[in-house]
């Protein structure tokens, strides 16, 4: 079986032994030099003024929301096709997620739908998710819209490490950017970890306080906080892997280019340039009206695939029970995406033999199932 991802292939065991030995020998397991080094390095990589390491990507979104003063009853606009992570963070603050529709190119927030959601709901923030490793197609328009209306825009960059457009990196377009370093991410730790990047020094200071009990100095809290810390081993792993991120992103793009060439004329392929620096191929997602049958066929052909993501947030049971339903008629592209997208294996260590097999399996589906072909 060709896996969707194979983390074992990416592990440099000699480096891992050196990292763990160094951290253990230091006697500092949380809040030490490894975290300080990573925060400086990742801020520099993103070309941001500040980086704040936290426990995971969802915490990063929640902490930014809290740092912005989002409170119970406030409203925050986001997309409903991105796994529920933004909505989870919004609800954790006591706020209400308001869903806008997405555009067909990068499957991220659509400007017109977002503008309508803002006009109708007067939200306190907007969260823009860069999905599948692609910078949102309407990023500049959405930034301009939020600036015009004095609404903070938070970028969820959990799938977009290193994606950049004209040299400007994911996480630096809006008020703040949030990252996950979950092991499958383009820059992955050996467990959970996350970060916030921002050029707003005041916001960065508040976020640093919130991540550790609201402390401004040890044991002295100046605001309600929480415990959300990146440990030293995860920071050390990220320090070791960060220098290779751009090379590994290029290897991911090469896999995507192979798929585009090999699948030409078969399924519906991404609608954007997979060779561009604003795409880092976190996932390679195709669109099929016959997704369920294709997924089964691929499994039978020895290829693992996955659906990112099958259920829009407003159809999740917790959302309906807490907030009520939102009409799917208002979000037609979201509905289409959630029933159509399918992710193929896409990671730097994927071999040409494996990509050839995957391509042939997809083509076989369309050739041997003529009633499915369009």
Write the layout of secondary structure elements.
Elements: H1 13-26, H2 33-46, E1 50-54, H3 57-67, E2 75-78, H4 85-92, E3 96-99, H5 111-121, E4 125-129, H6 139-148, E5 153-156, E6 164-165, E7 168-169, E8 176-180, E9 194-198, H7 201-211, E10 215-217, E11 220-221, H8 232-241, H9 245-262, E12 284-287, H10 291-300, H11 317-322, H12 332-340, E13 341-344, H13 352-368
Parallel strand pairs: 2-3, 2-4, 4-5, 5-8
Antiparallel strand pairs: 1-9, 6-7, 8-9, 10-11, 12-13
Helix pairs in contact: 1-8, 2-8, 3-4, 3-7, 9-13
By CATH, the superfamily of the largest domain comes out as Type I PLP-dependent aspartate aminotransferase-like (Major domain)
The overall average pLDDT, rounded, is 95
In what range is the share of β-strand residues? Answer: 5-15%
Q: Sheet bearing the most strands, described? A: 7 strands, mixed
Low-confidence stretches: none
Rg of Cα set: 21 Å
Give the tally of structural domains: 2
Number of strands: 13
User: What is the overall silhouette?
Assistant: globular
How are helices and strands ordered from N to C? HHEHEHEHEHEEEEEHEEHHEHHHEH
Content-based structural category: alpha/beta
Question: In the CATH hierarchy, what is the architecture of the largest domain at level 2?
Answer: 3-Layer(aba) Sandwich
